[in-house]
Model the fold of this input.
Amino acid sequence: MNQPQFELGAPAEVITQQSRTNFLYSFLVLPPPKREAIETVYAFCRVVDDIVDDDQPTDNPRLELNRWRNEIATCFSDKTPGTQLGRQLQHVVSHFPIQQRYFLEMIDGMEMDLERRRYQTFAELETYCYHVAGVTGLMCIEIFGYRHESARTFALYLGNALQLVNIMRDLAEDANRGRVYLPADELEQFGYSEEELLRGVYNQQFVELMKFQGARARSYFQKAEAVLHPEDRKNMVSAQIMGKIYFKILQRIEAADYNVFTHRCAVGKAQKAFTALTTLVKSKFE
Done:
């Protein structure tokens, strides 16, 4: 589903509410200062993603990304950013220890979508996942708060899991844009061609290929859960809600026998709200 494009000066809360993100339900369980900070970071990610969105192209996406690089530099200086979102980001980074390089690495990830539309191996794809999802997790945990360095590994594993589910769910939409995120060597391994993917061919080879992708996503969910230190679990309840919602999306994909060409595998609002509530209540007793 296409997301609305936002003006550079739009405030973070407007961007978050209008984007209909799956993450919204995880934001709601946070105390107001952390919720506002998370919404601001999410809004930044949303805005730079829209810059390279083929459905809503800007006149010069590279120029727009460079403008945000400059805006981020200003956020980490004693100067006043030129956009409302930039000013909100400056407030966030003055209160939470988010490294400047994470914002810049996110922009680099968006630029990757301008530079390449194919990945030969999973190692190449994993680099992309780091830039567009892993660094988001690394920013978020600085807002959530943590005591153990394993929280960083948790963020990276969970980021990989969420992005891999995104790739599986959005396979048809991305193919329509000429983008193939499944590694080329794995397409070959399972005897399913890029041409078939671009035509939306659903066959047994495709099912086996997607089972393999799903197993990889599940492994990252499991690694994230295993590495999280018990003393950090309460602070990571928002991240756990995100993970559970995306795990349910993966289950929907599996239940559709991986036919993402004809099924839009999503989780309804009521299920998201129930997941957020049960995860929050469970965290109180851990």
In short: The chain has a mean pLDDT of 90. The two ends are 36 Å apart (CA to CA).
